[in-house]
Write a structure and sequence with these properties.
Shape: globular
Strand content: under 5%
Largest sheet: none
Radius of gyration: 24 Å
Length: 576
């Protein structure tokens, strides 16, 4: 038994060693960094610059609306999967979007550095908005690239972990480090430096590997999929076009509502602007219904008709031309990814969506209230929180990601997903203790000598800081493990054929549910206090862990039915 365990650990180290030497892993770290840096600069550090420029809070609140680009990125994800950019297609299916987005982002940051935020606010806000959309587009393409290039050496588990490491490092560079250097060289110079970094990443990204040797061929896989729609055994064009019309109307309506809201928010007088909180709570759920729930039901209906042999072509048809050709392409971009996913997963999709909606909901909701809890409820200083969450906390989450990556290769994806979920849920109890005074966390910090270590830090180090730091460290360590496993699992269940759309839909659900739940959580904090909230989030996290157990059982049964008796820990199961 001991020999078997030792051999398994040896195998895990070998897998890690091969993956870390693979050039795909290096580019994944670079792309992860490029993905996180704009998010930190547009939705975090930028507000510090606006504050110093004496821009009013109401205007800064409008700036925060550019975050909707990240929340609703799935709305234009079909373009990333389907549309080829003239002249840039030869870079590769994903790189034709990644490299230009990085160059555009670098140019925007450099341009913003020569503007004065208060006197040139119109141009400043326009560039920030374009930058947020370019950043979200880059995220779609990078996530799809990660799924496409994964293989038996650079596994999806390792690539997902390395991606998050790069993302977290960029948060440190764009956040805490950005504030530090801005205090010394100024905000314009800081943003010019960050822009230069992204321009450099875009240049280096030209040499990133593509998914296959045929990735840049003119006869793309999507073109072949469009032609296959006219083969015998496929759904008739009449049925497909009806489904396309319904899904197209739903998506077009959702896009129109989001764009109208953003335009009104940016251009109307302050008293006439729509309330962003009311929009998120009242309209947000309907956008999810219109763009995900109803299209999924339509896709399920189409998949069932095909499975039953109804409304199918009895013989091959001639390739479509003109308007019919355009409709076939629209169907492939918008509806076919959903039909493939629903058809492949069947009723298991209900369980998968339940895991997606609950696994990271605590983190997604809690982030908004972290600083009010640290600064207002616990009465820590800005320096205390900066040290505990930005410096020590980022180190802890990177350590958690590293540990999560090792666990993925040694004990497998689902075991890591379960352990990470349980640990992340239980860390809410640490915060519950802090809400009651932190006596237990203080005693633990004293017992392990952590309080002594923190007390050696000049000026700010004391026992109070020690218990906050160790609490944040445990939480971030758990988040790192859970995050590594969650992104790897999410990436493993989508098809490489439609990775951009399917992954964008699932990841956006994670973000949107957290956004929609913040209003209710904020009201609960006001009425009952933080302690009850942390107990509630613990139960939500544990419920998610139970759902993971069911998903683990479902996957195990699926592998057994396919003849996979005992796959290697961390093995990438093809999602085709």
């Amino acid at each position: 038994m001991a020999e078997a365990v030792a051999e398994k650990k040896k195998s895990a180290w070998k897998v890690l060693g091969l993956a870390l030497r693979n050039r795909k892993t290096g580019f994944m770290l670079l792309f992860g960094f490029a993905s996180g840096l704009p998010f930190a600069l547009f939705l975090g550090t930028l507000f510090a610059w606006l504050t110093e420029a004496e821009v009013d809070l109401e205007t800064m609140g409008i700036f925060s609306l550019i975050g909707l680009a990240y929340a609703f990125q799935f709305l234009w994800s079909p373009l990333i999967d389907k549309v080829n950019i003239p002249l840039l297609r030869r870079l590769g299916r994903r790189k034709q979007w990644i490299v230009p987005a990085q160059v555009l982002l670098g140019t925007i940051l450099v341009t913003m550095s020569v503007l004065e935020p208060k006197s040139q606010l119109g141009w400043f806000s326009l560039l920030a908005g374009i930058g947020a959309f370019a950043s979200a587009t880059q995220d779609i393409a990078i996530n799809a690239w990660r799924i496409d290039v994964a293989d038996d050496e650079a596994t999806i588990d390792i690539l997902s972990t390395v991606y998050q490491m790069g993302y977290r490092l960029s948060s440190l560079v764009g956040g805490a480090f950005g504030l530090i250097i801005a205090a010394r060289i100024g905000w314009p110079e800081t943003y010019a430096l960050m822009g230069a970094i992204l321009l450099a990443v875009g240049f280096v990204g030209l040499w990133a590997p593509n998914a296959s040797e045929t990735d840049a061929d003119v006869a793309t896989e999507s073109e072949l999929q469009v032609r296959a729609l006219r083969k015998a055994g496929e759904l008739s064009p009449t049925v497909r076009n009806r489904a396309l019309a319904l899904v197209g109307l739903l998506w077009a309506g959702a896009i129109g509502i989001v764009l109208a809201f953003m335009i009104m928010s940016m251009t109307y007088a302050p008293e006439d602007r729509p309330n962003p909180t009311e929009f998120t709570l009242n309209i947000g759920p309907w956008i999810i219904v219109a763009t995900i729930i109803l299209p999924a039901l339509i896709a399920g209906w189409l998949a069932s008709k095909k499975a039953k042999g109804e409304h199918l072509l009895t013989e091959d048809e001639a390739p479509a031309t003109g308007g019919a050709y355009a409709l076939d392409h629209l169907y492939r971009a918008l509806v076919l990814p959903l039909v493939e996913f629903v058809g492949r997963m069947g009723w298991s999709l209900v369980l998968i969506l339940a895991v997606v909606l609950t696994y990271r909901i605590c983190d997604a909701i809690w982030g908004t209230f972290a600083y009010p809890f640290y600064l207002g409820e616990l009465e820590y200083t800005n320096d205390d929180v900066a040290f505990a969450s930005k410096f020590f906390g980022v180190g802890a989450i990177i350590a958690g990601l590293a540990l999560g990556g090792f666990m993925l290769t040694s004990i497998g994806r689902m075991a890591t997903l379960l352990i990470g979920g349980v640990l992340a849920a239980l860390t809410n109890l640490l915060y519950a203790d802090m809400a009651m005074g932190g006596a237990n966390m203080q005693a633990f910090s004293d017992a392990v000598g952590f309080t002594y270590l923190i007390s050696q830090i000049p000026e700010i180090g004391d026992a109070e800081l020690a218990k906050l730091t160790i609490t944040i460290a445990f939480e971030n360590l758990a988040i790192g493990i859970a995050g590594a496993a969650y992104i790897a699992w999410l990436s493993s269940i989508v098809s490489k054929k439609f990775s951009a759309v399917q992954y964008a839909l699932l990841s956006s659900l994670t973000l949107l549910v957290g956004t929609l739940g913040r209003g209710a959580l904020g009201e609960m904090i006001e009425n009952q206090g933080y302690y009850d909230v942390f107990i509630l989030t613990t139960w939500i996290g544990l419920a998610a862990a139970v759902l993971v157990c069911f998903e683990w059982y479902r996957e195990s049964r699926g592998k057994a039915a396919a003849g996979i008796v005992a796959p290697e820990a961390g093995e990438r199961v093809p999602a085709e």
